[in-house]
Amino acid sequence: MKKKFFKEITKFFAVMLIFFLLTAPVIILFGPFANLKRTVVGAILKSKHPQYITWLFSQDELNKIVGNNDSPQEQELLKFTANTSESLKLHTIESARYKGFVLEIPDPKRIQIATSDQLGEKGETTSNIAIDNKAVAAINAGGFYDDNGTGTGRKPYGFIIHNKEFLLGQDYLPEETNEFVGFNQEGNLLVGKYSKRDLQQIGAQEGISFGPPLILNGKKMITNGDGGWGIGPRTAIGQRRDGTILFLVIDGRQPPYSLGATLSDVQDVLYEEGAYTAANLDGGSSSTLYFNGSVINKPADLLGERMIPTAFIVK
Fold it and tell me: Keywords, A to Z (predicted)?
């Protein structure tokens, strides 16, 4: 009798498990749980296969789910005189959920893109990239695929530009667009979707592919929800109207020290710091701030700094 009872119970739970596995995606994506939907959709959008979610939702619907501004704006370029006399300034930020650091760089023309020595084959740590390039400061920059599962940061994607030269993306069609975060020769921080032709026409000097934009023309771009990527370590970059660049790194995945931040949190921090333009950079285990010979934050990777392909450095 007991054997039969346990057999029936086991069968019941097996059926329920199969039912849950089959219906869970539908419930998450089309059910009433807005925060869960936002997190899952955001994770898919930043994955290697974002096209899967576009089969289910239009771009307008995706913008509403993850909280993106659904009205693309033309970026206003700033006019400023770079401050070459002021030194870099570092300060901490803190909330009940996260701890992080902001580095102020008064002269935006000191910032360049630097890459690992074996770009496309193997990454390097942020600090090693900085040391190799004799930089005083650096943060991790663009996105990459680890398609071999080794965590070596070997395969960047999108555009990489250094000294106006396309190190990656030179084979793109002229009109093919990708997310871009970088600088023109005047020191303006450029954020948003650009084609190769666009970047050449506006004189893009340095930059990589990542996003999304967080602040454009002094206005917050995430107007609904938390940005859709959940809570985690974050790296971002911003620029004040006077040209000053802000490197922001927030630690995460390390309770009770720091759980992490949402994209909306990052946007709010940079807005309060006076950013007129800002964009998200690669986060998670990659988030690293190097300054004056040391790694300032606490990277989330158990092995320490993660291997990455690109960094924004301060010469």
Answer: Membrane, Transmembrane, Transmembrane helix
Long-range pairs, 252-259, Cβ under 8 A, ≥24: 252/98, 252/283, 252/287, 252/300, 253/300, 254/298, 254/300, 257/99, 257/298, 258/97, 258/98, 258/99, 258/100, 258/298, 259/97, 259/98, 259/231
Please check whether residue 84 lies inside any domain of the structure: no
What tens digit of pLDDT does each residue of 239-291 get? 999 999 999 999 999 999 999 999 999 999 999 999 999 999 999 999 999 99
Q: Nearest to residue 101, comparing CAs of 265, 246, 262?
A: 246
Hey, what are 170's tokens? Answer: 């030179």
Residues 35 and 171 in one domain: no
Is 176 in the same domain as 252? yes
Task: Write down the pLDDT at residue 234.
Answer: 98
In this structure, the answer to whether residues 135 and 253 fall within a common structural domain is yes
